[in-house]
Automatic annotation (TrEMBL):
Pfam family, one: HemS
Example GO BP: iron ion transport
Protein name in the entry: Haemin-degrading HemS/ChuX domain-containing protein
All residue ranges annotated as the Haemin-degrading HemS/ChuX domain in the record: 22-137
InterPro entries, A to Z: Heme_Transport_Util_sf, HemS/ChuX_dom
């Protein structure tokens, strides 16, 4: 199994760090991230890191080619599955790293949104790509290599106020599938924690933080596959796999499976919830982490194997708040 490390920071500070090396070790590419992304996927094996507020996911794999109008991909391996969807309107700036900058590897591309937050980092794996990476960079060079337009503050939309408890639970129950439930959550912006606190425990129940290591350890011991979903404004990534036993470094929980490495930053978790929500004709149970502002960090749910097995595992591991 190949495991790859990644930079700790993924915020506008990373954008500024690259700006300091612009024209030397870093080159600015044209603001056509989707065309560059499609060309990059044709180069062979890529080491791709997806950034989010409370996690990092790094994978070394051969990505399927993206086609026009299909901003999603799915890759299936032995007892593992990757599903990725792109919110293309949020992809904006692209920088090429020619030589190492801090923890950023050479021969890699960084994709940012309009606020300067990093969405993904893509590096060409050793022995892959040949001169195609250099040719891609040369073909997509931006005419201005002297400056970057640093982004302003992020617009944090609060979403609408909470409906009555009866309306909330009615809409929750009437959600037909995962998509309709996601639309319900989007109505409340970053007030998701207020929503969860308003409904009854049978819908959303607060858990103690030590529930997570208990669940992950039990899943590893029983070789149970679980699905971890993370994301940012431009990428939503869901990976199903029987993850390794969790390895802890301070507040960071590391999981690995067949060339993929996940790091969850527990210091960013403000609250942990057990959710019951609709999906594919049945009620699904998930663990969801929110930050101190009530914004989504990640979701852990059943793998592609068995919802009933996942519920049994949760029953033995969940620690509710008093």
């Amino acid at each position: 199994m190949s495991v790859t490390s990644w930079p700790v920071a993924a915020s506008p500070s990373l954008f500024r760090q690259c700006g300091g090396a612009l024209g030397d070790r870093v080159l600015r590419l044209q603001e056509e991230p989707l065309a560059i992304l499609k060309a990059l996927y044709r180069l062979g094996n890529l080491v791709v890191t997806t950034f989010s507020a409370g996690s990092r996911v790094s994978q070394n794999m051969h990505y399927p080619v993206l086609h026009d109008g299909e901003w999603w991909l799915e890759a299936v391996g032995q007892r593992c599955r990757l599903r990725q969807s792109l919110q293309v309107d949020h992809w904006h700036s692209v920088l090429a790293v020619l030589e190492p900058v801090g923890d950023l590897p050479a021969r890699s591309l960084l994709f940012f949104d309009r606020h300067g937050d990093a969405l993904q980092q893509m590096a060409v794996a050793p022995g892959s790509g040949g001169l195609a990476f250099e040719e891609l960079v040369c073909a997509m060079l931006h005419p201005d290599q002297q400056r970057l337009c640093f982004p302003g503050d992020v617009d944090r939309r609060q979403g609408r106020g909470l409906d009555s408890l009866t309306e909330l639970e009615r809409d929750w129950t009437r959600s037909d599938d995962e998509d309709s439930f996601s639309r319900l959550l989007m109505r409340y912006g970053n007030r998701r924690a207020h929503l969860y606190r308003a409904v009854r425990d049978s819908f959303a129940c607060p858990l103690r933080p030590e529930t997570l290591p208990a669940v992950l350890a039990s899943a590893a011991d029983s070789d149970t596959a679980t699905t971890l979903c993370v994301g940012n404004r431009g990428v939503r990534l869901c990976m199903s796999a029987p993850w390794s036993a969790p390895r802890w470094q301070g507040n960071h929980c590391h999981l690995a499976h067949n060339g993929a490495l996940v790091s969850l930053d527990m210091a960013r978790v403000g609250s942990l919830w057990r959710l019951r929500k609709p999906g594919d004709g049945q009620v699904l149970t998930a663990l969801e982490a929110l930050d101190e502002k009530g914004e989504w960090l990640w979701t852990l749910s059943a793998g592609d194997e068995d919802e009933a097995r996942w519920r049994t595992l949760l029953g033995n591991s969940v620690i509710r708040q008093c």
